[in-house]
Amino acid sequence: MQFIDRLKTRFGWSDRGLAMAGKNNPWGNRGGGSDDDNTPTGDKPDGGGDGPRNPWLPGGGKGGSGGDEPRRSASIEDIFKNRGPEGPRRGGGPGGPNIRLPDLPSGKSWGPLIIAGAVILWFLATGVHLVEAKEKAVVKTFGSYSHTFDPGLNFTFPFPIQTVDVEDVQTVRRDLVPSTGESAKLILTGDQNLVDLNYVVRWNIKDLENFKFELADPVETVKEVAEAAMRASVAQKTLDATFTGEGRAEIQLQVRERMQATLDEYQAGINVLGVEIERADPPSEVVDAFRDVSVAEQNADRARNQAQGYAQQVLATAEGEAEAFDKVYEQYRLAPEVTRQRLYYETMERVLAKTDKTIVEAEGVTPYLPLPEIRKRAQAAPAEAAATPQAQTGGQ
Question: How far is the C-alpha of 283 from the C-alpha of 290, rounded, in Å?
Answer without folding.
Answer: 9
